[in-house]
Amino acid sequence: MFTLHRFLVFLALTFIGSLYASSERIYNTGRDHYQQGCDIYHNDRLKEGERLQRAGQEFTIAVQYFRQAADQQYLPAMYALGVCYEFGRGVKQDFNVAAFYYKNAASKRHTAAQCRYALLLKKGAIDDGQTTPADLLRACAERGYYPARVAYGRLLENGDGVLKNLAAAVQCYREAAEDNNPDGLYEYGRCLEHGIVVPRDFDTAVTYFQEAARRGSADAQCRYGQCCESGIGVMRQDVELAAGYYKQAADQDDAVGQYNYGRCLEFGSGVLRDVDAAIEWYRRAAGQGYAPAVARLQQLAPQPAPPANDDLIIFEPADDDLIILE
């Protein structure tokens, strides 16, 4: 019998379904604009200024749609807004606002948002005084989220907030690599290169670096670029290919990639020589405290430069390599 109670339940479910569908449509529109912005941003055929300007317009439109969908508690849109605020895409960079959206989405078990929130905690961008990055990343890793598994592996490798466990760290990297996660491929390759827990095998390590670089890991693009530049571990030396990989890493705002690409420009290695452009890339790397760039910049263009951070290591893995829009 079709009772009033059942009818009201039916209306409620219909309303919820339509609300979800509406928020998803809004999110998809925002995602399309966001992707257009990304495509424009990474299109090397456009001049730098035009590229950034057009990308900024698309990001701004995307944020408007994401915000509308997030207001309806649509989790992917909340995560996307967090990414926009964390990296200043279409809005002014604000870690606290990013954390707000990440935390809200994470509270509803959005794993990617929880991972990004944990990484903000880890690098000291925010401090909620309640949770630790290790606990959050471990929970994400246990759900099978491979970016979190790699990040948790790095904590285990360095004993950062957890008991140091190299075997467990390498296992995290291996599992992520088996899923073709770019950072997992790079980290497991690094373990093979240096013989961390596993037998040293440089030739196999290079194949991992190559695949990770192809899939977008900035760390791997720098490392494999170095192999191509030196001719070690590859079929032949290829400075043009090396410069291309450095440029890919530099475009991801990787300080090592920016420095290495600047070096290629300064000496005309694999690219046309352009000292002015080299200085600009050195400035970007120096702005992130990368010591070799600071030193080179002072030699080429003596002036007050950002302080060097001598703790930076040339191939130290970064936590922010992958931004996955889910």
Could you explain the architecture of this structure?
The protein has 15 helices and no strands. By secondary structure, it is an all-alpha fold. It has three domains: 124 residues, Serine Threonine Protein Phosphatase 5, Tetratricopeptide repeat; 84 residues, Serine Threonine Protein Phosphatase 5, Tetratricopeptide repeat (Alpha Horseshoe), CATH 1.25.40; 84 residues, Tetratricopeptide repeat domain (Serine Threonine Protein Phosphatase 5, Tetratricopeptide repeat), CATH 1.25.40.10. Helix 6 crosses helix 7 and helix 11 runs antiparallel to helix 12.
Specify the CATH class of the largest domain: Mainly Alpha
The total strand number stands at 0
* End-to-end distance: 42 Å
What proportion of the residues is helical, as a percent range? 55-70%
**Based on the structure given, which CATH architecture of the largest domain is correct?**
Alpha Horseshoe
**Class of secondary structure makeup:** mainly alpha
CATH topology of the largest domain: the name is Serine Threonine Protein Phosphatase 5, Tetratricopeptide repeat
Largest sheet: none
Give unreliable regions as ranges: 7-11, 40-53, 311-326
> Number of helical runs?
15
Q: Work out the radius of gyration.
A: 22 Å
Strand content: under 5%
Instruction: Tell me the overall shape.
Output: globular
Order of helices and strands: HHHHHHHHHHHHHHH
Number of domains: 3
What number is the mean pLDDT?
83
